[in-house]
């Protein structure tokens, strides 16, 4: 396989704003989910993909600035 990627973004969003990219990523990826994709090309590889978005918290438990 010739394609792979790692991206990291520092976002400043409200919980409501975070819902939009989360929903968009789910809609984009869902057709490729191995357990529901019935017609994958023969050359398709299993790939691990994840989206993690959570508040950044300092060691004292307070939100990062």
Summarize this entry quickly.
By secondary structure, this protein is an all-alpha fold.
Can you describe this structure?
The protein has 65 residues and is an all-alpha fold. The protein has a domain at 11-54. The protein contains one helix and no strands. It starts with 14 loop residues before the first helix and ends in a 36-residue tail after the last helix.
The end-to-end distance, rounded to whole angstroms, is 39 Å
Assign an overall shape: elongated
Oligomer: single chain
Mean pLDDT figure: 91
Order of helices and strands: H
Q: Sketch the major β-sheet.
A: none
Count of distinct strands: 0
Number of helices: 1
Unreliably modeled segments = none
Based on helices, strands and strand pairing, what is the structural class? Answer: mainly alpha
Query: What is the helix content?
Result: 10-25%
What labels describe this entry?
65 residues, mainly alpha, 0% strand, elongated
What are the SSEs and their pairings?
Blueprint: H1 15-29
